[in-house]
Amino acid sequence: MRRQAEMDDRSTQDLREQPLRPQDVRTPRRRRGFWIVVGLVFVVGVVWWIRQAPQTERTGRFGATGAPMPVVAATVDKGDVDIAFNALGTVTPLATVTIVSQISGQLTRVAFREGDMVKQGDLLAEIDSRPYEFALQNAQGQLARDQALLENARLDLSRYESLASQSAVPKQTLDTQRSLVAQYQGAVITDQAAIETQKLNINYCHIVAPVSGRVGLRLVDQGNYISTASSTGLVVITQLQPISAIFTMPEDNLPPIQKRLQANATLAATAFDRTGNTMLAAGTLTTLDNQIDTTTGTVKLRAQFANDDFALFPNQFVNIRLLVDVLRDATVAPVAAIQRGAPGTFVYLINPDGASVSVRKVALGPGDATRVSITSGLSPGDRVVIDGADKLREGAKILLREQAGDAGTPATTPPSGRRRQRQGGP
User: Fold this and answer.
1) Confidence (pLDDT) at 156
2) What pLDDT does 124 receive?
């Protein structure tokens, strides 16, 4: 058995020392090469599928490649275009008055309600007037006393003058009597001024509105003692009719505004709400500031509004549209038709055949949110693309369709709400 085991060990050792044959090495290499080729084919297929996906999507949306693109068209027309500037403004009252008492005393009555509209001269509050009435009586009594003394001094002066003509009294006595008369005359004038002062104080006990407007919240309650040294007023009155709005304009917009004002033109100003969609009030430009703010390069302007319906409220933020001039009989195109790219400003002009478009460079003039004037490049009657221009090129085939919301066949593709700016060329 030992010999049999030795023979088995020798056979195993011979097998280990036996060299590999070429066909045994070549088989694994062939398998690795096969799987590498399969992997490359898979990667190439995935890349091809990704590149073909957009084309497949376009084909599925618009039909076969090269099919006409559905677009919406508009006709270039002639019309008037407003030359207007837009700015942000703040509603500012023409007058804001803090009611402060001109005399000291106890507040006996508050005659207004918070938020009331008052007119100039309306009673707002009353202060206890009794101390001033007593002072008035005292001044009147002092006046009567001084008037009596003045009258007596005048009679004595008349006697002295008669005696002095006969050299019966010294001249010094006559001069002294004349001086006494002048003193009583001055005392009478002082007493009369004191009486008028007390009458004025009594008048100040009745506090009235100096301007028309709306009263705010009450700052002092009835029963408090009011002093003229106090900085706290009774109430604040804000004038609301008329009212103004202060807004700023870039200094570049100042020359045309000044030119119109120097020609005594009335520039219309319209106030819109914060969104710019709802009109609040219509007014006129009244004045502009006397200097430009160097930090912002802007100048302040003031527009005034009647504010009959109280649509404007103090410190309210508004959008101001200032109409400077009107451009008459201009060539007008929709803003949605204007494209911008490498050629500059251009439109897609629909060719006479109605089935293709051409790129047409245009020069723009003044305009508003929906229309813009064309100074060159288009003529009245030309048709331009206002929706669906994103994928158009020079000579592209088109299919005209109705705009969404128009009468007739509904649009196959709703027009985009906002025109996209083109970055590249046509």
Assistant:
1) 87
2) 95
